[in-house]
Design goal:
Blueprint (H helix, E strand, L loop, with lengths): L1 H40 L7 H21 L16 H5 L2 H39 L8 H15 L3 E2 L7 H9 L3 E6 L2 E6 L6
Antiparallel strand pairs: 1-3, 2-3
Helix pairs in contact: 1-2, 1-4, 2-4, 5-6
Length: 198
Amino acid sequence: MISVFNRSQIIWGVVGLAGSLVCYALAWLFFKYGASMALHAFGYSTGSAPWIAVAALGGVTFSGWRTWKNGEGFQSYAESALCHDFGGAADTAGAHVVDYYAGRVTGPAYVLSQIFLGGPLLLLKNLHRIRTRVPEEAGLEQKLAHLLTVLHTANKWQGLADYPGQEREVLLLNLMKKIDFSQHKGNLRFKAKTSDGI
């Protein structure tokens, strides 16, 4: 159980880190060529475009880190600040037309923002995934399997107080997604998943 979980953490972590590199590369290309076009249009030398791209990537990385530290991640379009609905409230033809044309700008801007944030968010998420592997200690596999069997037999929501001295094993089973975990009103409750999971 532990080795399978750790192997999947490493595989998904590496895939996620590769995705982070792709997002960073796309952001780099966007900011570098965008800065080059803007500088060229105003008659300036394009030699500083790479430095502008580096500064933009620094800002994107800081924004992604702050988002990660706040416990947030990717947003759906409806959750983003770019979402609008001019037509819904007014319900007039003019409002719907404005909504349509605004969407032609905010839609691509939303997609680009999620790609740019994908670099730091995927990086942080997958470094965390690789760091949070379960230690392969002697006897730990048997303890986890036994506790999971007990939880399946109980088949009800329980708290950490029901398993004194086994708090670490409960938390590791939660990390491995072998149990359902809830923190309703500050009370930690858990229950074995309905599937076998052993």
